[in-house]
Known about the structure:
With about 130 residues, the chain is α+β, with helices and mostly antiparallel strands. The chain has 2 domains: about 1-35, no CATH class; about 40-130, no CATH class. The chain contains 4 helices and 6 strands; from the N terminus they run αβββαβαββα. The protein has helices at about 10-15, 50-65, 80, 125-130, and strands spanning about 25, 30-35, 40-45, 65-70, 90-95, 100-105. The strands form 2 sheets. A 4-stranded mixed β-sheet has the order 3-4-5-6, with helices on one face. The chain has a two-stranded antiparallel ribbon with strand order 1-2. Strand 1 and strand 2 form a beta hairpin.
Amino acid sequence: MTQAIPKLVTFEDFAAWRPEGGRYELHDGVIVEMAHSIPLVIEVVSTYWRDDYHKKLGEYEEIGIKEYWIVDYLAAGGKKFIGNPKQPTISLYQLVDGEYQVTQFRSNERIVSPTLAELDLTAEQIFQAGAYPA
Length: 134
């Protein structure tokens, strides 16, 4: 049995070839057709909050995730992300012209989501959903 080694594509070749109307990416010299972007990602902040507010935010924006929520129920994020004084916050990032625009929801503010237009919850209801009864 013989197997042909695929020809690796350079970035320049890829840029010259790339057709309109499709989503393609170059991975290790191989052209891959990408599916449509995921419309919504929701992350719950952990002790590594910088991953959610820095790393993942940039990655999701770059790949075209239309809406990204960061649910920070412990107010663990930095003050520049959730405000001062720090308080539990849902940051909803919406992709507009290729860049994220953020809207934040706290306490009894009703969440407005372009992706989940019929959602009828406040930030506090989401924060309390996982709480254990006293």
